[in-house]
Amino acid sequence: MTMRDTRFIRRLMGHWPRVAPLALIAAGALAVAAPLPAASAATRPVPPGLGGQNWTAIPTHAKVVALTFDAGANADGVQPILGTLAKYNVRATFNLTGNFVRDFPAPSKAIAAAGQRIGDHSVSHPYFIKDKLTDAQMRDQVLSAESRIASVTGADPWPWFRFPYGDYSQHAISVVNGTGFVPVGWTVDTLGWKGTSGGITAQTVLNRVLGSLRPGEIVLMHCGSNPDDHSTLDADALPAVIQNLQARGYSFVTMNALMGLGYHLLTSNGGVHDYGTPWYGSDAGRLPAGVTATAIAADPATGGYWILKSDGGVDAFNAPWRGSMRGQIPAGQAVTGIAGTQAGGYLVLTSGGGVHNHGTPWYGSDVGKLPAGVTATGISVDPATGGYWILKSDGGVDSFHAPWSGSVRGHAVTGIAGTRGGGYLVLTPDGGVHNYGTPWYGSDAGKLPAGVAATGITADPATGGYWILKSNGGVDAFAAPWYGSLAGHVPAGQSVTGIAGE
């Protein structure tokens, strides 16, 4: 970044004296100087696994992009940006300075009212390192902005913070983490802030986004107009950016995706309901008579998923199809589980303990080993070894090329989930979560309404937490982000049959 660019951004972010735009004065949103709000005395911890770095991309193989808009000097581009996002049903992240919400309360509230994610961009947009801020000043910039943003918009910016100018050090990251916030950078800067006077066009903005395109790309854009030519190139280019990314199969996420892309819920008619994660299609309206969707598994390699059907068939969505058990289920048995592996394939489990591998290694099964009256009810992959665990109806767990850490033999069980640390979680119908070789973050034991059971569990690969699926379509989150559920919305005559985390 040149000295000219530095001076330019200072103007863009409002460091030089300026006059409030006439449109806002006419709207009664006249900026009034106010004392800096007191920083919050209580801070929340950094979400698990997100400390220690400035995140410049979302670690995922899923075809998702996070559009982010920084706001400081003026709000000239806010209205067209919000209009475009609404038109295409896209959510983005807006990083607001404390001074922006003070000077432009109406646009700030409009961003929150539109359901867009809001992050913290400091109070006054200083250089954290170049301006030699003390630790106390850094903390105040973060926490005072948090307070002001929440006060004006009603939205909570935690835990996302963007360093002004992208100016940071490892120590500054540590200080920001100490306030409970996670620094978020960018994969690509569109340079729309340079404006037409800086030789940039809307086509340049689009070309830069596409030139750096990859799963998990974080795009830096701006809400304000260029202070010299008053162009709003990021707002102008946004429709083309969204259209071109969608044409390439990409979906859009907010910075919440860093806490885990979310989860998919499966209903018995083959419907897939996405929460915080891309949707690639479903089997709704496509299942043959008498066939139901029984389980869903995420593909760690692509971010897609597979649906297992009661006839042994497997359908793939943005994931490779490797085969199925259709027409091959042993007499008197049923398919009871499917698990995706790091190799890009999947394992199908039958009630007799058989493990059928499709595009992934086979390490053994429970065929011929199950006691009388005991069936194989679930299967989960160990991300650390590529092996797997089989859950049995008596609560027992058998391991294959994966560490065995215990079981709840003698108790009814409804699910098993392998975690990134190499252990597993076993779920009981009362909502109890039993951890083996992996952390425990809580359970639904003693919390379920009458007539509701815990039916499935999946781990969040980003945080190490997990989600519990309930028979009424509800989802409870433990050290993992909650994005919604089907509680009260399960279609008549159907049931929820699976959950898969990304």
What would your notes on this structure say?
The protein is α/β, with parallel strands linked by helices. 19% of the residues lie in helices and 23% in strands. It is built from nine helices and 26 strands. Strands 1, 2, 3, 6, 7 and 8 form a six-stranded parallel β-sheet that branches. A three-stranded antiparallel β-sheet has the order 10-9-26, with no helix packed on it. Strand 6 (188-189), helix 8 (202-211) and strand 7 (217-222) form a beta-alpha-beta unit. Helix 3 runs parallel beside helix 9 (233-247), helix 6 (135-153) crosses helix 7 and helix 8 (202-211) packs across helix 9. The two termini are 36 Å apart.
The average pLDDT score comes to 90
Number of strands: 26
Percentage beta strand: 15-25%
Please state the overall shape, judged from the principal axes of the Cα atoms: elongated
Tally of DSSP helical segments = 9
Distance between the termini: 36 Å
- What is the radius of gyration? 25 Å
Low-confidence stretches: 14-41
Estimated structural class: alpha/beta
Main beta-sheet annotation: 6 strands, parallel
What helical percentage do the residues reach? 10-25%
